Amino acid sequence: MLVQKLSFKRRSYMALMQIVMGLATLSTAVLVLFLLVYVLGKGIPHLSWELLSTRPSYLTERIGILPDILNTLYIVVAALGVTIPLGVGAAIYLTEYAENRRVVSVIELAAETLSGIPSIIYGLVGMLFFCQFLSMKTSLLAGALTLVIMNLPTMMRTTQESLKTVPQSYREGAFGLGAGKWRVISTVVLPGCVDGILTGCILSVGRIIGESAALLFTAGFAHSLNGFLEGLHSAGATLTVALYVYAKEQGEFDVAFAIAAILILLALVIDLSTSLIGRYFKHWRNT
Q1: What is the dihedral of CA 283, 207, 231, 135, to 10 degrees?
Q2: Closest to 195 measured CA to CA, from 169, 147, 163, 242
Q3: Does residue 228 carry a pLDDT above 90?
Q4: Distance (Å, rounded) from C-alpha 198 to C-alpha 202?
Q5: Residues 57-75, buried b or exposed e (16+ Cβ, 10 A)?
Q6: pTM recorded for the entire structure
């Protein structure tokens, strides 16, 4: 009798937990779908070729976001160009070369702490250090270097975890064949975890594209159309900053929703790319 009673309580508890988890999952899915439908429904009707391919003209009251699209591309390229070598190199050293595990633990703790700092603090530090102390003034380059500091811990920790997934027997087998340390890393370890490294890169791209608070302090919000090198040394608004300016400063909510729709579509593309790249390299390693 007691066993049946305990069994009934356990089944009741499990059923209750399943209902609670199901409701939590349903609520999350509904919120995400509502956000997607609401923003895309209000933004896509206002997308046009003129909006995407022109720059703003205050004489004709024309609104265009081409400079903002190019500024976003410039800042992504500049930030990744510094983040990837530093992040991957630091991860390789900490995982493969560093012998003092206490120092490694301190660095990992510092990286995790940096990952949790609000982005607006990065913006404040970037403004004081890059814009004022280094005399870069408000520019895309200052914004890109600020984003490097923001994304470096994520890139480093993602690469570290990927490197740890490579079996130790692979390294030992390569050493047994007479390969040197760097040759083992470059020909055995890195090819075995390249999917994790690419995933970290894509996640960094998503965070760069979606950042606004730090860039308001460092990159500015000019809508000027410049080339790559000239643009990096000039103030410029990315898509997220332009969304803030059009919605908050100018009251152009139609344009703001159009930019929001573009950002959501970019986020969906980034997530899909991450999934496809992971499947491709998983299949590649299995074959």
Answers
A1: -130
A2: 163
A3: no
A4: 6
A5: eeeeeebbbbbbbbbbebb
A6: 0.84
